Prior knowledge:
Organism (chains A, B): Terrihalobacillus insolitus
EC number (chains A, B): 1.2.1.11
Oligomer: homodimer
Family (chains A, B): Belongs to the aspartate-semialdehyde dehydrogenase family.
Helix content of chain A: 25-40%
Number of helices of chain A: 10
Protein name (chains A, B): Aspartate-semialdehyde dehydrogenase
CATH architecture of the largest domain in chain A: 2-Layer Sandwich
Amino acid sequence: MGNQTKGYHVAVVGATGAVGQKMLETLEKKNFPIEQLTLLSSSRSAGEKINFKGETFTVEEATPESFENVQIALFSAGGSVSKKFAPEAVKRGAVVIDNTSAYRMDENVPLVVPEVNEEDIKNNKGIIANPNCSTIQMVAALKPLQDAFGLSRIIVSTYQAVSGAGTAAVEELREQSQDFLNGEELTPEILPVKNETHHYPIAFNALPQIDVFQENGYTFEEMKMINETKKIMHAPELSVAATCVRLPFFTSHAESVYVEIDQENTSVADIQRALNGAAGVVLEDDPSNQVYPTPLSAVGKSDVFVGRVRKDLDTTNGFHLWIVSDNLLKGAAWNSVQIAESLVKYNLL
Amino acid sequence: MGNQTKGYHVAVVGATGAVGQKMLETLEKKNFPIEQLTLLSSSRSAGEKINFKGETFTVEEATPESFENVQIALFSAGGSVSKKFAPEAVKRGAVVIDNTSAYRMDENVPLVVPEVNEEDIKNNKGIIANPNCSTIQMVAALKPLQDAFGLSRIIVSTYQAVSGAGTAAVEELREQSQDFLNGEELTPEILPVKNETHHYPIAFNALPQIDVFQENGYTFEEMKMINETKKIMHAPELSVAATCVRLPFFTSHAESVYVEIDQENTSVADIQRALNGAAGVVLEDDPSNQVYPTPLSAVGKSDVFVGRVRKDLDTTNGFHLWIVSDNLLKGAAWNSVQIAESLVKYNLL
């Protein structure tokens, strides 16, 4: 057990990216026990210097050998990097916490939001997947309702920040907004999806496309929310529908969520009571004082915020909620670090 | 019938406001037959000069006598102005087309979207109400589905532009966005609701409050969508739920809409066919070529644009749609002028 007090050898793959940076900030802020830190990236970013707890680290190009002696490898450098290097890390004894979509729906890979299904990590075979950002905050907020009342249906429309599309998208919103205010012509190059044919302005606009379209007319982001929610909540019969929209703000996703619960005769106060004090959830819901969460009010915070709880006016078991969380923290970095903490807690390293 | 060829005496009340300006632009663009034009406002804006068809008009302070000989009075100066002056205009023989919420739910006042319930204008007793902007575009898009398949349920989440809150809100978004980009502190003063206690930043944010909260936890905007939809569609049994969100763009509202229809075994192609070519509706829906409407793409256009038509994956009769329209045109000015055109068409002046 010496390791637990001294700390672990942690590798961060994609250390220079938006989520990688937040992972390092979170590891530092939450004081995760680290004995050795290895920062990895593609060859493009190798050589960059990064500060962690007052020490300067040089980012190295990831190779299979980079994972020798690594105990926890946090991956956030795109699906292809995870596909290439996660098996190499596992082969060398590391547990991989993967923030990409590469392994999420693999039946041998637990998909984990600790407030919802922490114990699933016990079934890991070396890789644990971190869910999609918009999924994480929704299931974290709905788990207390599933537990207390049963959950049969979810219809969600999202309001998602550009940082979910990476640092280039953040820069595009910033520059494009300034161009718009200056009355200059807009030249979109990144959003909605970098590698797609068409790009549309995000500044002072709304784009109903996140990730690529599937055969059934849904985007991959929408299908992620639908499929991941059922897997994390252990609810294959749960009805889930999603419409995902990219919006001109930098951080935090918001979600307008309609749910149907199994229990009849439930009041708004019952729902609020179930949410209030649930792990990782903060109720911010007082219409008479204009209290509700917004993307800006959630920035930099680890929790999932819920407001605007209302009873549906036409059904006996339907409710509407407004769910907001920092997409880079609970939606990515913080949830990954929480999984690492769970591995320590269950002595799985 | 001499009047019809020569034109009508039209008054615009609130001529200097955001919607008033668009009404004048629309009257000019659609070449509505005007013989005499009277521009009215509060005392604050009286004396301003406005150009119409190359002629300069001076805005006058509205008084009861302003409406002598007026045949059509287009009101868009706030509910209290309509309450005060609409009866005076009617008393003097004018037909009032009121763009405020003052009379919309009055059972003696037709609430009209010409593509949906044009004939209701025949029941007018002097006042015809123009619905709320977010309602108009939704019912215009859903009417073809109601006609073809029957409609039992609507759940809508909105993405609404700041111009719906007036010119001060537009200016606030512009200035606040620049302040944000400059790294300056934000000092919200207008949104979400000018006369409310608390104001929150709209720049790079999302505010789940449009208009004031009601006893049941819904905002007035949400209740407008719910109640007006049932009235316009002549469907008191229709289930309608709404979540209304203000977003940082200037013009056009977007809506993520879930509908349940009565007819079973309906396909996406059936829905698209019903929408395609419906009056005032344009289908922009080709995911494989990234074709869908956005707020920016709808600016300045009279039509209601529909895209992202998908079949719900869990129900046999549910569909998801994305509906976008210019909130100042079809959502306000153009719908009002359309009502005026209907009055001419039915010889009701």
